[in-house]
# Entry
Amino acid sequence: MQDLVYACPGTIEEAIAAMAAGDARALAGGTDLIPQLREGRRRAARIVDLKRIPELTTIAAMPDGSIAIGAAANATAVSRHAAIAAVYPAVAESARLIGGVQIQNRASLGGNICNAAPSADAVPALICHEARALIAGGKGRREVTVESLFHGPGRTALEPGEILVAILLPPPQPRSAAKYLRFTPRREMDIAIAGAGTWIRLDGNGAIAAARIVLASVAPTPIRAPSAEQRLMGERPTAALFEEAGRLAAADARPISDTRGSADYRRSLVAVLTARALADCCRQLKVEVAAP
Amino acid sequence: MKTLVTCRVNGEERVVLADTRDTLLELLRDRLGLTGTKEGCGNGNCGTCTVLMDGAPVNACLVLALETPGRDILTIEGLSGGAALHPIQQALVDHGGTQCGFCTPGIVLSAKALLDANPRPTEADIRHAIAGNLCRCTGYGKIVEAIAAVAAATRGA
Amino acid sequence: MATESIRAAAQRPLQVVGKRAPRVDARERVTGEAVYPADLALPGLVHAKLLRSPHAHARIRRIDTSRAEALAGVLAVVTAADFPELPVGTTIPMGEVGYDMWMVAQINMARDKVHWVGQPVAGVAAVDAHVAEAALALIEVDYEPLPAVLDIAAAMAPDAPVLHEHVFTKGVEPRPRTASNVCSRTVIARGDAARALAEAPATARASVRVDTAHQGYLEPQVVVAQVDANGFATVWASTQGQFTTELMIARMLGQPQSKLKVVPLEIGGGFGGKIAIHGEAVAVRLAQKCRRPVKLVLTREEVLQGGSGPAAGALIDIAVGADKDGRLVAIEGTYRMDAGGLPGLSPSLLMQASAALYQCPNLNLVGYDIVTNKPRTEAYRGPGGIQAAFAMEQAMDALAQRLDMDPLEFRKRNASVTGSTMPIGTPFPAIGLTTILERVGEHSCWRDPLPAGRYPRGRGLALGYWRGTSMTSAAHITIAGDGRPMVTMGAVDLSGTRTTMAQVVAEEFGLPLADVHIQTGDSKSVGYSDGAAGSRVARTTTAALVEACADALGQLRKRAAEKLQCAPADLDYARGRFHVRDASGPAITLAELMAATLTDGAVVGRGVSTKLPLGVEIGAHVCDVEVDTDTGLVTVLRYTAFQDVGLALNPAAVEGQMEGSVVQGLGWALMEGFDYGPDGRLRNASLLDYRMPTALDVPRIDCVIVETPVPGVPYGVRGVGEVPIVPPAAAVANAIARATGVRVRHMPMTPERVLRALRASGDGERP
# Structure
């Protein structure tokens, strides 16, 4: 492992200045970055620890119902935050999927996003909720959708010298629910072979007015399943509908075969997980799903 | 490169010369001579190196030494203050919850964090609390039994 | 924790043996004070690292270490040139057949050729690990890559590249003239199995593939080596056998054993993977070269990526046939075992194990040991047992189904009993398989109906057998000045034997357990003992200690007789006290005796056990599973392991061995397997992707201990630790078959493979 300089700024401005010094990586929980550095999978001469910056670690519920999650807040804190657990249970549950207890006490949503693994556990639920990312850098601040951040495995839209400051969850929409389900061979300490996050909003007649389906581990980045989403529009929830949506989502998926699973298997999982996640959204909304 | 690290370990302020690349695990074992915390994999996949940081279980191999100033670190050495074992330690002895012993320090600390936060854990809660601590010798049964016994004894007390 | 213990009538009521005593060494484990080799800090300690081959198969044309040697902070560099070249066939003594030392030398430092990714080609010692790492990058190795074979089928193909020009298939007549990757062919046969099978009214087959798996010890290999001013080396190792380690180091260095000793410290798991050395001799050579103590610690990635010996993968075909009454008439088996990059062992033991529990007049078992360009495989609890059972027990289960017989009834009808002919032709000594099967039938795990669940559920039964070995164990007992026994045992404590052996000594002396001090000796401070393996330590050390206790008590008796002025034969001994028989008068305690005779010299009782009659291990396991038929995920709902242990020296310790071993079996059954890429690199060389079960992945393992003592063996003890890993994969597979009607033939039975088998429904069978 190459030698490194460690910086621990107290403000965002200091952090940006430290990143600007070059060959730097931001450090939140370190659960991805530290093994990567030690194993030579990433290189950095400078580590910028973000955890002493209040805006990076606080989780704040706003009066309008939106929530700002500091990018370096740890997953345990996210999962236990009362507002997140109450209003965005899919986000809270997703935080509890990352690794295990020890990992969650350090890992952050910001790190999960910036590490940009296609299997990132926290991401699909965030995209389902149209979460936005607040970014700061030498040229100032900007806000983009979390969905737009992913360029490829390990690559995000962050420019050199930029840091992710916070993840913003918008105010919740009535009659909506989200769920993220992933498949792992072990109950914990595992990485998703495939994952499906679903979000639906029902209209006054109980039909699906809007739907978002986000798939993990089946493409170079988290992806939407547009054909599945379109199929759901205007329809009443039934098991047959959800199974069809699952099949369409599987067709939208672009998985590879690797040591964790074959492409075929991943597609099968997408179909199953999508259907099950949609069913769970209905359960949360106390809406009965007509049997096939 | 070399750097001075000031940290609080087992209730004591320690100042030690470390390498900027050191993890907390290396700081504990190699710089402070606290070898009770073991290394099983070095990349956060086994939990063998679990310590408590501000009361929360973390993998010491995933924390840089330089991140520790201002944090309260508890290692296995800091748990029992002398002749008397902590109830979790005693229970593992009594119930056969330790064989080769390599996972044991990490398990003890994960269990302590669980019981400190949740004195009435179900078996599922216990298994979840130690899911991040691999054990290859016991099959987990007697570890779970030991932790449950501590919880029951505390309730009864 | 449900445990029942059915004890055969004891000869005399036991006071300490048989009790659930807590481990005598538990305290230091729960406080973190137990010392493992990586914990050692010596003044001037330097750090070693090994350079490993990136190629699965290559010739080494040249190694240039000059740039590494010139790096500041590098103190020594070694290659094969620093070790004497051992001729092929060099062995060290171990048991009856010895251990192939030429192979051990290759495993520790490749010479001229590499046969797997990760095989060491050089070693460095430097002031710290970072410098050592940098030095490795400066060593230039000129490889000539060669075509590699990565699986059994490829290795056996007629035009396969041959790994070793000196290997000709043993056991084939006439002796082949061309070298082969098939190192040996072993046949165990009786009767005419082919004909009996062809004529059998009911037959079943199972053809399985088993992936290589790892023993999964949490403590990677580690060694500290120090050479003193006189050239005497002390080696602190994580080892299952200090004497074997010493022999291997001495042989690899070409030095006499008297110039070195091996001190076994605590070992963080071994399970068969720490019998052979993996870096110890290299560490000593580095220490000799740089005149500093050397610590070599393998990373987890190294352990998995060729730095240790995993458990053999296999391709096994079984065919079984029975008459219309369900009596077995034929067992045919072909066992192809993947030895990795160097010849392995004869598969004889695993072949025998798979068939031993069945009375069957016609057997034809053929086994092959095959090399491939992967790490040389080593032992793992009952080596080959679980792989063979995965095939055999599925075939037996399928045969029972074909006969429309309850699987337990089928086993009872065909069970071997005391006196039955074993596969190698000798009669079974006392065994309790029938007792075990009766207990299974009476137990709630068998009688309780399987509650319905969301997904299909099924119950599976599988048997397991392992023979184990005896070999040599030594121990001695000295008596402290306060009269208490101080035990030094030769075999490494791998399974809690310090505790159980202390219990034996306490029992023999009639003293409380707390009065016995026990330690493991190093290779110069106690009599030669073979390594902790083959389920042998508790049994053989018990025998050695019974002898040592008698020896010590005999010496004490003579001293007591002198003090009490009588003949030794006039004394009775009980509970730490000699008293003159038939008199209410003179008596002397051990404490008083030692206080009075301390300066007369030491009392040292010695004992050794060699070739103790075997106490074979037999188990039967019952497993309930639920199969998510949409994802292939298998959940183990309930698991009960029945085992005959002869006599449970310590039921808690026995349960611990059973539970741990079962969970290892469940891991290999469902989630553990090596995935090699086409370049021979392991693609899952981390504990993220090499999946070992977490506490959430397995249920409680219930244990039922049966005791059929081994005749002629002190306390009638059997081996315990190996057989529990043998049945689990088959028990799970049989449960899956009962739940879904589908047999899964590829181990581990990952969710993907289960789903594929469910979808193919029948395609998975090979004729």
